[in-house]
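Project outcomes to date are best conveyed with an example. Our students and postdoctoral researchers have been running inverse folding experiments weekly, and each run begins with a structure described purely in tokens. The record below, which covers 579 residues, was selected by the lab manager from last quarter's runs and is presented without edits.
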């Protein structure tokens, strides 16, 4: 049984500001492209949407302190009393500040590929945490200056071989390294700069087309000197044709609801002039092509991101199953790597240095972990609901709810009776028409099914059911006590969680299937099971497997236990003498 989450390989970089200079012919990191990237964030909606989507997703994650297991591949949560847990809990002032910290880093890692964390101690204790862009940081000689709320704050260099001054601000650069050059930042927008410039030109072309069709409908050619009789008020004079057109056009523009906007202009001109009146347009095939090219540029940008293209393009035509799969992929590819980048920075540049200052022996094994369980769409519980229903642990109404149906889909009494008759006929394939039914078909066994339905309660001794019910309740209580101390229950919510009965806490706090093992929720829950099994003549191993499977399904499905559900948790193979 795996007791902890596997450790992910992190491709990230972070460093505190030091006074060391680049030596030799080493060039400074190329950051000129980052200004252009921010410009597209300000002017291109697709860039801003992608950055804000990642920002919102990162804000839903939670931070907690973990410890590398002996195999170096898995991470297990540390106790709340561990110094690492206390340090992580104080990052950015707690869960709310951590959510803002992670959210603020989303645009920085999507657009320029890097950002800064500046921690400034308060005079009365505690720290202020700020996320700044590279444009808000500048180096002046050996000093690093940060612009915070319009004020320049000097960040002294940290001593790479000693202990930093606790009363001085700390600057931590966090970046996604470019595979060609580690010191340079990389981002999906960097690879799309040329494409975004093309998109900007196409946007301008489409805007020009829209304006031209509003203000210029082509050229109307009329024979020179063409006139037509004026209104009777003007006597025998004649009006110039161009003046009439301009007057009607101006009226239609000023008063769109007037008749001048819809009624055609009536002209009375000599017959020989009608054929000479023509309209010329300047429409080009590029008009329609520009729209197609712009859509193609947007699609190419969407596919160049670290998230599924549907995040930017929309999920039209995708059913809810596909949407769940896409969100899972988006979290895995676009959110978790960036969360791990920030967590890696907090581990190497904040948590471990502080643990080393207090001579913590396990400092190098402690890590900051970003938990994404709150980000993920709850897994489809249809299969679990069906299994729990077969075990008699939930009602048919609950099964319909979890599989997407409502009570209007429930079968009528006549339909249920017809279905039972059909099932009985299918269970007796050797019976010929007209043959009398027997109590037990010759090809079936009189033994009870392996999983007892709820209706079997009357066939089991009440003492066995009560003992099993007690074991289940104890196991769920143990799981609830542990669940309250996991990242699924933030510190700010633990006081409320204590008001809920431990055995029912899983119905309030969501638990994913893998987290039962990760957090060891049921470990140590069956200490009295062998004694109880022996007392009632039950198979201990089978009873343990049956009840643990039942409790695991209840926890991951968020369903509470009830005594009437106990028979569904037992298997006949566990009953040695009890039945």
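After processing, the design step wrote out the following sequence:
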């Amino acid at each position: 049984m795996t007791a902890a989450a596997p450790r992910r390989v992190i491709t990230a970089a972070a460093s505190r500001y030091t006074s060391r200079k680049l030596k030799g012919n080493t060039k400074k990191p190329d950051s000129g492209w980052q200004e252009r990237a921010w410009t597209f964030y300000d002017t291109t909606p697709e860039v801003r949407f992608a950055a804000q989507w990642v920002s919102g997703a990162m804000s839903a994650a939670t931070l907690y302190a973990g410890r590398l297991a002996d195999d170096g591949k898995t991470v297990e949560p540390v106790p709340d009393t561990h110094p690492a847990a206390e340090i992580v809990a104080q990052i950015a002032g707690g869960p709310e500040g951590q959510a803002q910290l992670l959210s603020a880093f989303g645009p920085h890692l999507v657009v320029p590929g890097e950002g800064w964390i500046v921690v400034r101690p308060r005079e009365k204790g505690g720290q202020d945490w700020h996320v700044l862009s590279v444009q808000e940081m500048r180096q002046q000689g050996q000093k690093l200056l940060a612009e915070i709320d319009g004020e320049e704050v000097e960040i002294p260099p940290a001593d790479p071989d000693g202990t930093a001054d606790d009363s001085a601000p700390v600057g931590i650069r966090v970046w996604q390294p470019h595979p060609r050059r580690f010191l340079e930042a990389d981002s999906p927008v960097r690879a799309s700069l040329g494409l975004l410039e093309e998109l900007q030109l196409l946007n301008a072309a489409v805007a020009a087309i829209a304006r031209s069709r509003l203000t210029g409908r082509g050229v109307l050619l009329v024979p020179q000197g063409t006139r037509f009789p004026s209104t009777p008020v003007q006597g025998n004079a004649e009006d110039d044709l161009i003046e009439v057109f301009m007057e009607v056009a101006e009226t239609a523009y000023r008063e769109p609801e007037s008749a001048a906007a819809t009624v055609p202009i009536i002209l009375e001109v000599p017959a020989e002039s009608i054929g000479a009146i023509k309209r010329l347009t300047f429409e080009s095939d590029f008009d329609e092509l520009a729209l197609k090219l712009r859509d193609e540029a947007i699609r190419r940008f969407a596919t160049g991101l670290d998230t599924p293209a549907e995040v930017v393009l929309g999920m039209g035509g995708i059913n809810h199953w596909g949407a769940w799969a896409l969100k899972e992929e988006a979290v895995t590819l676009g959110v978790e790597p960036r969360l791990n980048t920030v967590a890696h920075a907090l581990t190497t540049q904040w948590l471990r240095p502080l643990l080393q200052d207090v001579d913590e022996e396990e400092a190098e094994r402690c890590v900051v972990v970003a938990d994404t369980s709150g980000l993920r769409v709850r897994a489809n519980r249809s299969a679990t609901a069906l299994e729990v229903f077969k075990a008699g642990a939930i009602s048919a109404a609950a099964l319909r709810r979890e599989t997407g149906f409502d009570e209007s889909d429930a079968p009528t009494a006549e339909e249920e009776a017809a279905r039972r008759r059909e099932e009985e006929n299918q269970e007796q394939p050797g019976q010929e028409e007209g043959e009398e039914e027997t109590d037990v078909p010759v090809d079936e066994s009189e033994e009870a099914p392996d999983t007892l339905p709820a209706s079997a309660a009357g066939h089991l001794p009440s003492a066995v059911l009560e003992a099993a019910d007690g074991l289940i309740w104890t196991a769920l209580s143990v799981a609830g006590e542990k669940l309250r101390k996991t990242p699924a229950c933030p510190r700010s919510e633990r006081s409320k969680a204590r008001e809920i009965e431990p055995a029912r806490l899983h119905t309030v706090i969501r638990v994913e299937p893998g987290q039962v093992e990760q957090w060891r929720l049921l470990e140590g829950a069956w200490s009295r099971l062998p004694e109880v099994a022996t007392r009632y003549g039950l198979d201990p191993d089978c009873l343990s497997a049956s009840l643990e499977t039942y409790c695991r399904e209840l926890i991951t499905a968020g369903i509470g236990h009830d005594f009437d559900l106990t028979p569904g948790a037992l298997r006949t193979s566990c009953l040695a003498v009890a039945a």
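The first helix runs from residue 32 to 43. The radius of gyration is 36 Å. The training component of this project remains on track.
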